[in-house]
Amino acid sequence: MSDRTDPVTDPYDALLLLSFGGPEGPEDVVPFLENVTRGRGIPRERLAEVGQHYFLFGGVSPINAQNRELLAALREDFAANGLDLPVYWGNRNWAPYLTDTLREMVRDGRRRVLTLATSAYASYSGCRQYRENLADALRTLAEEGLPVPRVDKLRHYFNHPGFVRPMVDAVLAALQELPEDVRDGAHLAFTTHSIPTAAAESSGPAGGAYVAQHLDVAEAVAEAVREATGVDRRWRLVYQSRSGAPHVPWLEPDICDHLQHLCEAGAPAAVMVPIGFVSDHMEVKYDLDTEAAAKAAELGLPVARAATVGADPRFAAAVREMVLERAEAERGGSPRRCALGALGPSHDVCPAGCCPNPRGPRPAAAGQD
Ligand SMILES: CC1=C(CCC(=O)O)c2cc3nc(cc4[nH]c(cc5[nH]c(cc1n2)c(C)c5CCC(=O)O)c(CCC(=O)O)c4C)C(CCC(=O)O)=C3C
Ligand SMILES: [Fe+2]
Predict the structure, then answer these.
(1) CATH 1.10.340.30 fits 14-158+311-330, yes or no
(2) Measured from the CB, is residue 40 less than 6 Å from ligand 1?
(3) Strand blocks (E) in the chain
(4) Which of 115, 133, 221, 332 sees the fewest Cβ atoms within 10 Å?
(5) Stretch 278-283: mean pLDDT, rounded?
(6) What is the pTM assigned to this prediction?
């Protein structure tokens, strides 16, 4: 049992890396998809199609390996900087399951947990859904008669320099992969997960945060790439991985339609920049590297795909900074909060009603409601 905290991380006694989870073999695919889509009204055909994406890669999502790497990077960074804060990992939809991890944490004596979600932006899917799953897991612990830890969540880090700068370098590296004669004319296609337009409109404390945050990041990355290359490239925020029923409007344009449009408009090349994904997910491996790459090949449009941030040491360092910053704020101090772009640092605690659940209110942890 631990009953002490490191003074610099006080009041926190653990960090929880909270992720989506993904299958690790063919037999996991269907149960994983059932976990993800329970009660969501996803059409059967869409599920069969998404299952095929996983089977194409041996039923293995890249997300778990990426999280293991991030976990190792965080532990290494904390140790190298004298931070005595244990890091645990739990997922919403696959093993290691969040509830099992929290049970292990309370058995280890952890009582005040700070959460890092592998989703950088505001939205129901990217924020409140994580908080609802935290509340469900905490309720299970209470039902089992276990101590219930207090759980907080780190602010949205989409605009943290430790998240943005690796993306700038990734774009510069992707540009180098393009043939030299089309490099300067290459468009930047910043891409993120599409969500229902209604969810986009209600995202964040005042609405519209999902798109506004992505535009802020795209602008900051495009500007840094312009400074580094001396070339002012055209850019646009586009979407991918649309799901749901066809009659429900989701954010558009889709990356494939955008590539078609670029081609018709005479663009010589494009770099796909998956700013919406913290690491390589199936959406990156299939929807971009397989589907969109095939579309580009069919169009004869040279494309490159920028790497995701993943376990970049600068991101691990950013997490450490945000942990220290939040701990200081919890102790009543006023820490400096790093942020690039125009929006400024995000709130520490989601206000009541932020990123509402489209199916109606449910208990959510780590926020004002
Ligand atoms: C905004 C957003 C993120 C980014 C933020 C974050 O990272 O959290 C994200 C991440 C992810 N989404 C993932 C997988 C899936 N998402 C689905 C379905 C949905 N996603 C949505 C949104 C998002 N999703 C939405 C509005 C739906 C419709 C159903 C619903 O309202 O819930 C479905 C069902 C099949 C389908 O319809 O596609 C699957 C299998 C994986 C794992 C990938 C891997 O294995 O590598 C990851 C990281
Ligand atoms: Fe998703």
Answers:
(1) no
(2) yes
(3) 14-19, 87-91, 112-117, 150-153, 187-193, 235-240, 270-273, 303-305
(4) 332
(5) 97
(6) 0.96
Whether residue 129 has its Cβ less than 6 Å from ligand 1: no
* Ligand 1 site, residue 64, Cβ cutoff 6 A: no
Residues facing 16 on adjacent strands: 88, 115
| Buried/exposed code over 6-25 (b: 16+ C-beta within 10 A; e: otherwise) | eebbeebbbbbbbbbbbbbe
Please tell me whether 214 is known to bind a ligand.
no
pLDDT digits (tens, 9 = 90+) for 209-230: 999 999 999 999 999 999 999 9
Greater confidence (361 vs 5) lies with: 361
Other CB atoms within a 10 A radius of the CB of residue 262 amount to 23
Q: Is 36 in the pocket of ligand 1 (CB under 6 A)?
A: yes
How many Å lie between the centroid of ligand 1 and the Cα of residue 347?
Answer: 24
Count the residues in the chain.
Answer: 369
Write down the pLDDT at residue 4: 61
Give the ligand 1 atom nearest the CA of 243.
Answer: 37
Taking the centre of ligand 1 as the mean of its atom positions, its distance from the CA of residue 195, in whole angstroms, is 9
Is the distance from the beta carbon of residue 133 to the nearest atom of ligand 1 less than 6 Å?
A: no
The answer to whether 14-158+311-330 and 161-305 have equal CATH topology is: yes
The token pair at 98 is 């969040």
pLDDT in tens, 239-265: 999 998 889 999 999 999 999 999 999
The CATH number given to 161-305 is 3.40.50.1400
